[in-house]
Write a structure and sequence with these properties.
Layout: H1 2-15, H2 26-36, E1 47-48, H3 57-78, E2 87-97, E3 103-109, H4 112-117, H5 121-130, E4 135-136, E5 138-140, E6 143-145, E7 147-157
């Protein structure tokens, strides 16, 4: 009877799931955490020091876009551009801001008429970005991150 009791105890201990420990690797935790991120949104948008006083996230974004588009428009207005026909075009600019705050023009969708009238428009756009004030990059989970965004610029010339 004693041997039978020992056998039952050993059988109970070896078949019990209580003693099995599930190990979770750090890679599995990271993978699960990365799936919960909304990669299309950031905690704070890129900003200029002028926009720091604003508290609401959307207001900071609007301020950043306004400062950038105003700066580009002022630069283009200072340039002497001669055209043979009226131009009324919207240029779609695609930018990237690195985690270090470096702004790069990735793409500019320009109408063929505008490009024919102002062949150096891409050069002018790039030059306008060189004199921008310091940009503070976007923040996601307390880390600086690279972001991309699009900005329309309206060009009207007579």
């Amino acid at each position: 009877m004693k041997q039978f009791c020992v056998f039952i105890v050993i059988l109970g201990l070896t078949s019990c799931e209580y003693f099995n420990v599930k190990k979770t690797s750090s890679e599995a935790i990271l993978k699960e955490e990365l799936q919960t991120f909304n990669w299309d949104d950031v905690d704070e948008y890129p900003t200029f020091s002028i926009c720091d006083s604003l508290a609401v996230k959307q207001e900071k974004k609007n301020c950043f876009e306004h400062v950038l588009s105003t700066h580009i428009a002022k630069y283009l207005q200072q340039e002497t551009i001669i055209v043979s026909q009226d131009i009324n075009d919207t240029i779609a600019l695609q930018f990237q801001i690195s985690e270090k705050g470096v702004l790069t023009l990735l793409n500019a969708k320009i109408d063929s008429v505008t490009l024919a009238e102002i062949p150096n428009i891409k050069t002018l756009l790039n030059e306008s970005l060189d004199s921008l004030p310091k940009i503070f990059p976007a923040i996601k989970r307390r880390q600086y991150v690279t972001t991309e965004f699009k900005l329309p610029i309206i060009i009207k010339m007579n």
